[in-house]
Specification:
This protein is α/β, with parallel strands linked by helices. The protein has 16 helices and 12 strands. It has helices at about 5-20, 100-110, 130-135, 140-150, 180-195, 205-215, 245-255, 270-285, 315-325, 365-375, 390-395, 405-410, 435-440, 440-450, 475, 485-500, and strands spanning about 40-45, 70-80, 85-90, 115-120, 200-205, 220, 220-225, 230-235, 345, 355-360, 425-430, 460-465. Strands 1-2-4-3-5-8-11-12 form an 8-stranded mixed β-sheet, sandwiched between helices. A two-stranded antiparallel ribbon has the order 6-7. Helix 8 packs across helix 9 and helix 8 (about 270-285) crosses helix 10 (about 365-375). It starts with 6 loop residues before the first helix and ends with a helix.
Amino acid sequence: MGTIWSRPARVALAAVLATLLGGAFSAVAGATVTPPIKVKRIWMPAPPAPGTPAAFNLPGSHLPHNLDLNRVGVIKVGRRTAKNVLVFVPGTSAGAAYIVPFAKSLVERLGDWQVWSVERRENLLEDQSLLKRAKAGQATPQEVFHYYLGYLTEAGEPRPHMTLIPSERVSFAREWGMNVAVEDLHTVIESAKGLGGKVALAGHSLGGSVVTAYATWDFAGVPGATGLSGLVYDDGGSSPTPVTKERAEEQLTKLSKGSPWLSFGGIGSPFLGLFSSLGAQSTVQSPQEASLAEDFSLLPSNLKPKNEKGELIAVTNEAEFGYGVNVGSSPPTLVAAQVHAGAGLEETAREDGLVGWNGSGALSPLRRYAEMLAGTATKQADGDEWYFPERLTIDTGAVAEGNSNPAQEVLGEHAIHGHELPSSLKILAISSELDKVFGGSVLTSAEILAAQSGIPSANLTLIDREGEYAHNDPAAAEPEGNIDGNAFYAGLVPFLEGIG
């Protein structure tokens, strides 16, 4: 008579066998164990950009010596066995880690897809040294704040701190426009195609303009969309009306005399990215401690929490971060950085005098948004972009749904195949409250792009959240384990299933 195994004994044996075999097999039912989801950041060689040195050095900084800036990065999220790839292009002043929490939810649901989030070359200039240590629990929020910002106003003997990059040392970044972004993206997409599966291209905000530019770009007479199965627009796209030739010339002249970096919401580089990254990291690391930023004299006054009387109040790190990004308290100039993160500041202070954050009713949990911007899942990257090229912003104005125009000639762009996209291409677009602010329509832009090439309406998935979602809610809203918690997730899952 054979040995009779009890159920607990069988389960225990299965666990032992699975361990011995490296998790490759399950002894319970002979089923293959699903490989774990990986989050991995890599850099790839990219085409040399005009004027960009082969080896960049900044004495006194923590940047690597002889830094090669002709590279494009990718944060890969998914299982190595997955062959289909959704390539994601972040928006203005956003880094590749921005989409990682959403991507992890997506690939957990769709095991045959990976998400590759593009890390633009300018992020190589970020000194992530102390933030990396903070993520490993080896640096306190106080040490991090001093290193990146506090030293600017502290008296006494200077301690080690971040080295700011003079604009004249990176004047070559004035050429980092759409040509560079598209060529770098081409490197990523060709690598994704090499896996042998389907490839879709997604973009958030300005990243949506890059998606249209790439799809309609002239690659030796062939549009970039050739070989792609889908385009995804996360609250961003291309205006059908280009800027004028004169406006393009005026913008280039102004750029030639100023910083190569964009000033976002009136806050110059790298400070918006630092405020965001440090606020997010302190929210993740020490949410209930007293805010380190509110007494910082260089923090804009409209980012300092106030009560109903307009008086400054003492808050926690979490409340400071929430005040700056939540709809209702975040300043209008930062509308593109906002989410619906809850009710707002607590009505009464705690015993220690600090006011905390009330996240009730949040569409996008504040902790989740903080993890997106802090890059919690990655060792040496965050969801912000400290140095964003002004030239890329300028160039988006001439994409014009991939139609040739005088401004493109001035800027040297080649997004000209707007009427020649494959008719089999599928397109998804979601809108937010930002459409009301700027008067455009992400959904209309997607419809125009499709109509130009005879792409049937059946291939379009249009999600209208203009009255409900802030600009970052599509990526930040919690899927909650099902497709009902996030409209973007709910639409994207069947969209990708239909492609793959």
